[in-house]
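Box 3.1 A note on notation
Throughout this textbook, protein chains are presented in two layers. The first layer is the amino acid sequence; the second is a token string describing backbone geometry. Keep the layers aligned when reading.
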Amino acid sequence: MVTTNVYSINFVEKFKQKLFLSLLYAATAFIMLAFLTQVTFVILTALGKDDLIQKAVNEFNWKFDGTFKNHPGNVMYNADEHVWIESVTNNVKIGKLAGNRQLEFGVKNVLEEYLQEKGLDLTPSAPNKLVVQIVYLDVLTTKKNVSVFHKNEEEVVIRMKGTLMKDGKKVKEVMVEESSSEISMSTLIVDEGGKFNQTSLSNALKKASEKLITKLFEK
């Protein structure tokens, strides 16, 4: 038992010595590196190489400064926290918004907002790419007549498909469908029908976009 205790004490002492020497060597190496860097900068300044100094400072900042954590070369860069919307395509075949480019831009803006709300950074060079297709968009109108009044319930239905790619390979693909309705009461007039209620359209787009992002990035 005594021999075991002595061995344990010796092991601990040797470990402490090695740890102290390792820290001492690391500190010495850091001081030497700092000294050599200082000397190098002094020499470059004397030679009028200010452009090289600025380049070296920029490289150091991009590598270690947390301000540039979205830069792929930064030590704090996390690829999973970055995504880019590669494309949003309007594949709607019928209706007033079929092939409408403004609809594509609107959906892309909404998607970007929800991605940022989830703490993801929008980076063009990100390995994660999002491809979205607007598959279906239409308005369904239900009429109910009561005496000289009528009630219209317009329901905007949207269906979108999203594909998450990483380094060019498909990771996940989901299809979502959402709807939003707007009820209006008015005296009986000739109903033209087929018109999109702006509020319902906006709500449907937001609901579908949120569901799409949630499903694509849920663990």
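The chain has two domains: 2-68, 79-217. The first helix runs from residue 2 to 46.
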